[in-house]
Design a protein that fits this description.
164 residues; alpha+beta; Alpha-Beta Plaits; 4-stranded antiparallel β-sheet; two-stranded antiparallel ribbon; 6 strands; disordered C terminus
């Protein structure tokens, strides 16, 4: 018997106990993406500064944070934050266990996975201001940063995963 919870997407949030290095974040996202069933991914954390914010070197560029790229599927996304939380929308409840297994294989420290509503299902005021009354792709709802001065990183991954 198919129930409503079996057919609706489920949203979860992964809370690692530490910030992830770019290499660890890359490995984790690769494992999660390979496990399948992922509809949307959102990465959150504090901003990586582009220049020294205070002290004797104030204003000097930080070369260490330059060109940090995460590759997911056929897209490369510039990493602008320390990875502190990862939000996922999965096709079904069964995919949660494969995500948990990917986290256990990849993360050398503890983590929590919480099931909760993360992504908007209706257009927000910011969505309306940016896209108008009709949004063609519902996956981008609620992902607009109204304070951003320029276009933020938003990647749309194709359905083909290159598993051939």
């Amino acid at each position: 018997m198919v129930t409503k919870s079996d057919t609706e997407p489920v949203q979860i949030e992964i809370f690692p106990r530490r910030f992830l290095n770019p290499d660890t974040a890359q490995r984790l996202l690769d494992e999660i993406y390979r496990s399948g069933g992922v509809l949307r991914i959102m990465i959150q954390g504090p901003n990586l500064p582009r220049a020294v914010p205070y002290g004797p070197g104030k204003g000097l560029p930080i070369e260490e944070h330059k060109n940090l790229l995460l590759e997911l599927g056929d897209q490369a996304i510039e990493l602008r934050v320390k990875v502190g939380r990862i939000g996922l929308e999965l096709e079904s409840e069964e995919d949660i266990e494969s995500v948990r297994a990917a986290c256990e294989r990849t993360l050398p420290f503890s983590f929590d996975i919480k099931k909760r509503q993360l992504f908007h299902t209706k257009p927000t005021v910011s969505d309306y201001a940016k896209y108008g009354s009709e949004v063609e792709d519902k996956r981008i709802l609620g992902l607009v940063d109204p304070k951003a001065k320029k276009e933020r990183n938003l990647a749309m991954l194709s359905d083909s995963r290159g598993d051939s």
